[in-house]
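Example 3.2
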Amino acid sequence: MDIFISFSPHCTHINKSTTMPMTLHHHHLTTVITTTLLLLLTIYYLAASATAGLPQFREAPAFRNGEECPKPTWPTQSNDPSTIHIAMTLDITYLRGSIAGVFSVLQHATCPENTFFHFLATHHRRHLHRTILTTFPYLNFHLHHFDTNLVKGKISTSIRRALDEPLNYARIYLADLVPTTVNRIIYFDSDLIVVDDIAKLWTINLNNHVLGAPEYCHANFSHYFTPQFWSISLFSKTFEGRKTCYFNTGVMVIDLTKWRRCGYTEKLEQWMRIQKRYRIYELGSLPPFLLVFAGNVEGIEHRWNQHGLGGDNLEGLCRDLHPGPVSLLHWSGKGKPWLRLDSKRPCPLDSLWSPYDLFRHEPLFVDS
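Structure, written as tokens:
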């Protein structure tokens, strides 16, 4: 559905000799025209989004830089060190979570105008682009197409259908999807909110590592792989000489320059091919990252990924926060806060997510 509206420059003046009632003055006509135009554009946007099956969102407020912030230079200098690059996936199922995540980052950033978002999407890109643009009119962003052919034949079934979606593997291809001038990026899942200044995470020192993330060394590492994996020495020896710790791939700081130079995309793909043949794990895109990076990760404070708030992958039971300070809340696991809130069966911590929910709920009444 395309609507084209044009106005002739010769029609803006009203001749008093016309038969139009004298009570309709020039500014009245201008108001009528403007109102009609806005109404038509609104109808067009709502109809287009409804056709795509997208939820509707309220417009977020404009967040501006503080006086101490350097002037943003994107898109003329995409490698400007003052620009914070964040990557997130966009799809209809998790769009509400993605919107809340973006909103939370902007609200707590000291220099929100220096934040650039790289969104990765497979389908409905035009509608998703419009949704971001109308919800965040001042946002610096680009929507990248993720070609599902990149993972065709490489994905095997896991314990949850959501983990099998091609877009769940897009993080493996970040180095190829974003411009080569982008040297560092933060990857965020679509079920988290940030409650601290994103610049603190952006500026951590990765030292000689390619990837930084909060590590959890108390977790039983063997549970992330099948008995088949541990029974084949060629595979299990992969971890020899490495102090392997679990880390969650929903929050990662990545040195893209080193990633590209060392060919980490190909290394991850190789383990995906092995998985197709030998069935060595059950958890989607996470185990390949553990196989390639565990024991070679720059540890980040746990405050930057209070994960597991969605509960376990089977029942999605409520969980509490881990001890310590909090900079990021992550509803990884089966239960998502927007679904539990809508079903009137929220977990206690879901109330921390709801202030960032820009979802436009259906009105209870229609005032006629």
